[in-house]
Specification:
mainly alpha; two-stranded antiparallel sheet; single chain
């Protein structure tokens, strides 16, 4: 039996969408268990906590691409970033060019719906934890329940803040945040400031970490149970939340604590398909063929080995601009079909490549095509009829079924890069070099970073982009750094279709823009909220100030 189903009798028993109308309430599809029974004992309450894990990978809003966490990673973290493009842009161009930032109702509003579903369920759990306990042992069991729910809520608000709020540096945290709900009340409520939201994230994580440490309990040591949270996950959430807050001295210890019991995977594990937790994964979204979501899955959009048309016809390609910065001896490059000089010459040179379908490098014959067939298709790394393109990536390989497979949320590599960024901001360049060595040496024999200053920062950025490619970080990182979106055509030394390059002049449709463009890379609050919460305005007023609800 599937790990989550085995321990979860009621994945959505208390599923409420606490920041929208009652239209978003969902009763149990799997059990008729009542709330009183569910919260009668900590053992039964754990079923509700397990249900949070199930909510992270399921079908949403009757849209094939909406699968929870994986949708956020693909549609927001990667498609509009600078590291990955689809082989053909048909159907993806508005997302890739961030044209939805000022829309109030579009297909990336799943993020608001999904994270408030998690928050609403977490709040239901927290509101139903007893206030008095007949024994210390029972209290500790309930403390473990509480710590898990607090961690999920903190993570959800961290992700919402990155999407629907401006950068911390724009107004030092005084810009508009999101609707902050820490109980099951559902009355209209104003948005809090970004600072207040992240203050609550810190508070939740402080309490969760203390409870994890004092309760004496932990998630199972079974590696397949890493869809559950524990103290390590709480520290990882803390690391990411502190990073977007530019709170460098908080990033460092939490990054260290989160990864201390895990280690970097080796080259063979890196090539194994990123579909199953290993010694490096700290937290995951769990999915396999016992609870498949078929063509709704993350793999249908981010894996060339999926039978679904979204990836089979339009597989993901890594940007040449990223690959060119990595030493050719790095074994992580083995999961990408990087064309050799001879293969490019065989195709007629870069000019000919740039004139292929959509300018993205579609290939149907020649030396490169035959090599990819032998090394990727025949070995199962790509589906048999997947269209082939230069720089095609085979990072996520379907585990089973149509498109089943787990997804890493946190792994050691991110914690190393998070700490390295914080150390760099604090001027500790020696520490940055050591962290880069730790992240890179398992794959690149002889790597020893000696760079300093801006060159060191560029090295950190290059390896972070490369290592975390297609794991949902690209757009979030660029927004946090406040840097320009720079996509280069083949003629300019990149591999992007011209459709996504330029600024819209000279007959180009444009895809490059600065940090103050595209609504400051800030998504409007969707109508699914504003239709039922009259205290919230979709687009932030530049002079927004905190109201009276906080």
């Amino acid at each position: 039996m599937n790990k989550i189903l085995k321990y979860t009798l009621c994945a959505s028993i208390i599923a409420g969408f606490n920041s929208c109308s009652d239209n978003y309430l969902e009763t149990s599809p799997q059990s008729s268990t009542t709330k009183e029974i569910l919260f009668d004992t900590p053992e039964s309450a754990q079923f509700a906590v397990n249900g949070l894990g199930r909510l992270m990978s399921k079908q949403y809003l009757s849209n094939q691409g909406f699968n929870g966490e994986g949708t956020v990673y693909a549609y927001i973290g990667e498609f509009p970033g600078d590291g990955m493009q689809k082989l053909a842009y048909s159907g993806w161009q508005n997302i890739i060019k961030s044209n939805y930032m000022q829309s109030n109702n579009n297909n990336i509003d799943i993020a608001w719906y999904y994270y408030y579903r998690l928050i609403g369920n977490a709040n239901q759990i927290l509101d139903n934890i007893p206030s008095e306990f007949p024994s210390v042992g029972l209290q500790r069991q309930w403390d473990f329940i509480k710590a898990q729910a607090l961690t999920i809520r903190a993570y959800s608000y961290t992700m919402l803040s990155q999407i629907y709020s401006r950068r911390w540096t724009d107004r030092n945290g005084e810009s508009r945040g999101v609707v902050l709900r820490i109980d099951t009340s559902n009355d209209p409520k104003e948005c809090a400031s970004l600072k207040l939201v992240l203050d609550q994230v810190y508070k939740d994580l402080d309490e969760a970490i203390e409870l994890f440490e004092t309760c004496g309990d932990d998630r199972s040591s079974d590696i397949d149970m890493r869809w559950l949270t524990n103290s390590d996950v709480a520290h990882a959430v803390y690391s990411r939340a502190a990073l977007i807050r530019n709170d460098w001295n908080t990033v460092i210890p939490n990054s260290q604590e989160a990864r201390k019991d895990y280690s970097i995977m080796g080259p063979e594990e890196y090539k194994a398909g990123f579909n199953t937790a290993n010694k490096e994964w700290i937290w995951e979204v769990f999915e396999d063929d016992t609870q498949p979501i078929y063509y709704y899955s993350f793999y249908n959009y981010m894996s060339g080995s999926c039978a679904g048309s979204a990836s089979r016809t339009n597989p993901p390609l890594i940007s040449k601009q990223i690959v060119d910065q990595i030493d050719p001896s790095d074994r992580r490059l083995e999961i990408y079909a990087v064309p050799t000089a001879e293969e490019i010459e065989d195709a007629g040179g870069y000019e000919a490549i740039g004139n292929t379908t959509n300018g993205s490098g579609a290939v149907t014959k020649g030396r490169f095509f035959q090599r990819v067939q032998n090394e990727f298709v025949k070995t199962g790394r790509l589906y048999g009829t997947t269209k082939i393109g230069y720089y095609i990536g085979a990072k996520f390989i379907v585990k089973s079924g149509v498109g089943d497979g787990c997804i890493p949320i946190f792994r050691v590599a991110e914690m190393l890069y998070n700490e390295a960024e914080a150390q760099y901001r604090l001027g500790n360049e020696a520490a940055v070099r050591e962290l880069l060595n730790e992240a890179t040496q398992p794959y690149q024999e002889g790597y020893n970073c000696t760079k300093t200053g801006e060159d060191l920062w560029n090295e950190l950025v290059a390896y972070r982009k490369f290592d975390l490619w297609s794991e949902g970080h690209s757009w979030f990182d660029l927004k946090r750094w406040g840097v320009d979106m720079v996509r280069k055509t083949w003629a300019e030394g990149g591999s992007w279709a011209s459709y996504f390059c330029g600024d819209g002049t000279n007959n180009k449709t444009g895809g490059n823009f600065g940090p103050s463009d595209k609504n400051n890379w800030t998504k409007n609050i969707p109508t699914m909220e504003t239709n039922y919460n009259n205290k919230v305005i979709s687009q932030e007023d530049p002079n927004w100030t905190l109201g009276n609800d906080y």
